[in-house]
Amino acid sequence: MRLHHWMALWILFGDSFVAAEEARPSESSPTATIVSAQKIWDAAPHNAFTDLERFKGRWFCVFREGQAHVSPDGKLRVITSTDGRRWTSAALMALPDGDLRDAKIVVTPAHELMLSGAVALREPSKFRHQSLAWFSHNGRRWSAPIKIGDPNFWLWRVVWHQGAAYSVGYHTVDPGFVRLYRSQDGGDFKAWVPTLFDQAEPNESALVFLPDETCLCVLRRDGQPGSGVLGEARPPYVEWRWRDLGVSLGGPQALRLPDGRIVVAARHYGGGAAHTSLLWLEPEAAKLTEFLRLPSGGDCSYPGLVWYRGLLWVSYYSSHEGKTSIYLAKIRLPPRAVSPVAPLSGRRF
């Protein structure tokens, strides 16, 4: 769904607070409204690659700090807030032998926070990358890092379902392919599907489990074609069907809303310039439709998504104001009318 036009009201409160911005997908469609969009962190020269979680009455946002988009000094920062407006540092993860990248955070069935990421190891090293995880009961004191998955496989994001953790890991050396990992405890990840997808350099991903147990995977590709693909599988998630989404994506995240609609957030290139977008996913049609562009541009995106008290909360990073910084947006979505998401119940493939 192409954006028809923008209406924006910018209200400055000292740290780039933005309110009441509207984006209208079309004349006949309800409007998604940006209730607020606020810069929440810019302490490092480069602040990027976010995720967001709510835990024990607090917000936790995680991201990478470093000198540049790619630099040897990457650390994973955890910040926290009670109201989403005022943020303080809770923890900082650093390793002496590599660049920590792409923090992700999730609540485990054991009611802990699980922080995951990958380290780009410095030479000389036997491997290029190793995925890692940390655990915490309060978001401030964290366990020592543990290795998860195989060396040179980047476990992009961990999703818990029915007491098990799933993650799509991509191979960081040639040949490029992804595999599906599964763990019962969040530490011991085994290759559940050793070769999940191997066409056109797949890498970053988002998993969504539906009420009928169908699993959806939105997967980025950087080869030819450079469009993302949608995977679908039924338990035990070893046989997958893949379809081209026809859209290039960066750092995708996906969330199923309480009303059944599925939102995908990602770096998008509609109109030729990179920006952070929200899109509706129609699984039956393997279709993504952009419905809102967040204030963003340049080096940007890699969002986290949380549905809370009737609003969609989105963390992301952007360089549209000059310095690459962390932002938090709250979005009021239009009510569901005719659902863009057809039910998948009963599908077998």
Give short descriptive properties of this protein.
349 residues; mainly beta; disordered N terminus; disordered C terminus; globular; 6-stranded antiparallel beta sheet; Neuraminidase
Short description:
With 349 residues, the protein is mainly β. It has no helices and 26 strands.
Percent helix among the residues?
under 10%
- Spatial separation of the terminal alpha carbons: 29 Å
Strand content: over 45%
Strand order of the largest sheet: 1-2-3-26-25-24
The count of DSSP E runs of length 2 or more, i.e. the number of strands, is: 26
Helix/strand order? EEEEEEEEEEEEEEEEEEEEEEEEEE
**Which architecture of one domain per CATH?**
6 Propeller
The structure class reads mainly beta
The name CATH uses for the topology of one domain is: Neuraminidase
Which CATH class of one domain is shown?
A: Mainly Beta
How many DSSP H or I helices?
0
- What is the radius of gyration computed over CA atoms, rounded to a whole number of angstroms? 19 Å
Query: Which regions are unreliable across 5 or more consecutive residues at pLDDT < 50?
Result: 1-29, 339-349
Structure description:
The protein is built from no helices and 26 strands. The protein is mainly β and 349 residues long. It has a domain of 238 residues: Neuraminidase, CATH 2.120.10. A 6-stranded antiparallel beta sheet has the order 1-2-3-26-25-24, with no helix packed on it. Strand 24 and strand 25 form a beta hairpin. The radius of gyration is 19 Å and the shape is globular. The N terminus and C terminus are likely disordered.
